[in-house]
Task: structure prediction
Amino acid sequence: MEFYQQVLQYLVTGVTLGSIYAIIALGFITIYNVTGIVNFAQGEFVMLGALIAISLYKNQVPIVVAFVGSVMVTTLIGAALQRIAIRPAKGASTLTLIIITIGASITIRGLGLITWGPDPYSLPAFSGDQPIAFGGAAIIPQSFWVFGATIVVLGGLYAFFEWTLLGKAVRACAINVSAARLMGISPSSMALFSFALSAGLGAIGGVVMAPMTLATYDMGSMLALKGFVAAIVGGFTSTPGAVVGGFLIGILESMGAGLISSGYKDAIAFVVLFLVLFLKPNGLFGGRDTGRGGL
Amino acid sequence: MERNGIGKYENYITLGALIVVMGSLPLLLSNSYHLSIMAFIGINTMLAVGLCLLMGYAGQVSLGHAAFYGIGAYTSGILTTTFKMNPWLAIGVAAVFTGVVAYVIGVPMFRLKGNNLAMGTLGFGIIVYIIFVEMRDWTGGPSGLTGIPSLSIFGFTFDNDLKYYYLIWAIALLFLVLSLNIVNSRVGRALRSIHGSEIAAETLGVNTNKYKIQILVVAAMYASVAGSLYAHYLTFINPQPFSFKLSIEIVVMVVIGGLSSVWGALLGAATTTVLSEVLRGVIPQFLKGATGEYEIVVFGIILMVVMIFLPEGLFSGSVRIVKSWRREKESKQRTVDETAIVEPSSVVAEGHLAVEDK
Amino acid sequence: MLDDSTSAVMTNGSLLDARNLRKSFGGVVAVDGFSFTVKRGQIVAIIGPNGAGKTTAFNLVTGVHPLTSGEIHFCGQRIDGLKPYEIAERGISRTFQNLQIFGNMTVAENVMVGRHPRSKAGILSAALSLPNARAEEKRIFEVAMQNLKVVGLAHRAMDAASSLPFGSQRLLEIARALAVEPKVLLLDEPAAGLAGQETKDLAQLIYRIRDSGTSILLVEHDMELVMGVADWVFVLDYGKLIAAGTPSQIQSDKKVIAAYLGEEMD
Result:
């Protein structure tokens, strides 16, 4: 019974973590599908989302406004990143783009350090800290905000890509750039849009997770890596795949940390990464090869 | 070689000049702080030259190079403290062990390309770092290993910065020479052909996978020796210097130096090491109470700016621009007979939006 | 009928013998049961409308793509399933329709890469610059220069490969492939993007290569060139062989004309 409760608790934690990873993974694939770029600065959007929201909240801004404001600011930063660093490198090789986005990542991280310093910050939970009992496990209310955010993001993305003209334009770009261009869609605008959207997604993840963890300027890198693993597990182009991948990583990590060793918690995602890359390089759900480097 | 712009002949001159400069530099630098920075430039040169071969020549990104450096340092540290092994022998054992690790990692890793390879190597670096922290019984955990013996040979002990300076630079220059020889050989061409077009290289009989693994092993062994020297020089190690941050700094060194220039790697190592020291001194003056790694902002901006404007690296890129500018001046005197020059790269200049590159 | 000719060719010193090649990408069949042979000293062409599977056939022969089914024999040995570099070592080399020049090297170095399977210095002897490696390096350079002379690019040997005009880059790819000393040379649309005189020179070059003992397999859209140089022509349409014969037989083949007319109407 005790063990069962423990496992259930880890499962709950894992699904919460996994929701965050899923949102980050969605950010990765949004940019990748449109531009073919893996944005190594994806985690920095999460950091910005969390820390900007915290700063706003500290300045007496109501939490809802702080949430929306933070997501909007981060979205603009994402757009700016595309215009400043990605667009000028048009036609660059994969290697070059990897280095550029890594440069962007550590620049933003460093600017975060300058702005917020090395200390951790926290945000109060959106609806209290009173845990809710669930079959022997306790769920903190913030977890529901995280689940909710994931569902809203997923639903929003679905509606956007299926029902709006802009969403269809983005999809057209993802399928065939030249054909999209012939139809009067500007791939450059779509690339810009994908970065903005992806930054916004990252920020949403950052804000909803901020109350559960301490936010620091360097929180992004590890989150990005796990989001990337989630995306890889899901095949890197598939939205549902990314979500399932996120849950899988979250649960494995939480179980591993609880049942094996918390010190190796961060290594678990990479073990999964290697297993997937070597055994099923197109992810558990098929999809295209993301390795555009060589051939 | 003699066919190329920068001929082997020039390499010898550069090397000779470098030996003279590095040999006499300590006469000007009596300050042990300056000497230790120079020694670190030498260590970083070993790291950068290795990554330059792997990333610049063979075009295979590695974001976990600090791991090999750390494996070298810890293997040396553990063998000489826990097992009381002779330090020189330990350096050799560490290099072979690191080479084996690189081989075992390389075989599956190079089935990956591009972005996946980048993430894979990054993950490898992080796992190794976690192992340094977590395997307390062996590595001493976060507080690290102390009491690593200094190097000594035939009663001559390397017990000050000056002696280590010479030792480190002798080895760094040796690695430079070995690397130059590799680059200007059949193997070097094979590596560059992988970078140029992997598919063409394969169809011309280059076993691309074999060479990627070989050069990874070489780069890892360079890094291992650098790590061993670091351990014996400082006589204590902890996980901190072998983190992701150093892996990125090594990438910065290579990017500054010029992705495919062995000499550039040395230049990049020097620039990055000095810049890092200077920034650590300067930034706190501007930002009150600044602690932490502010210098990463500068490195990040360098990475972006260089890659956007001079993707072949700062050093090589500048050399190329100067050369082509000079050539342009020459060719203006001749009449241009080929009017329709179609740059082959313009075919793929569709840009980063190309969803499917064939 | 095709099978008969195949077996006839086999006893007739066929170098390259591809049987029932089939390749599908996902659900799309790019090459569908294509058989062809190249005999010693022959110039063989594969033609067909765009998307007929010609380049895919090249990728199958050179091991760039694995076969879905079928067999490829070369000099009496099976080569399907081998890695591209192993196939190159056995004596098949190629050029690319979308040029794959090593832009990070000089013209001479590009060709020197082609000597790779015919030389052997390893990383250790290279790093230590051992005498045998140095001697070999010199020979590699000499042979590369000879290959450059064959295509008429010797005077640009020291220039950056990326500085060559388009037509010369095509020739450089041929020189590079020749450096492998292939028994069969695969040329993928060598005339694409060439001007009139350049195409005529190319025809002469193809003859010279053939006369020096290398058989040639050619994919080409320029019908004048194909009909001029080829001894035998295979016609592909939608991945299937629709005709095979001498150039004059092909020119009067109704199916071939229909396939090409179909393309022009697009």
Q: What stands out?
A: The beta strands of chain A are 132-134, 137-139.
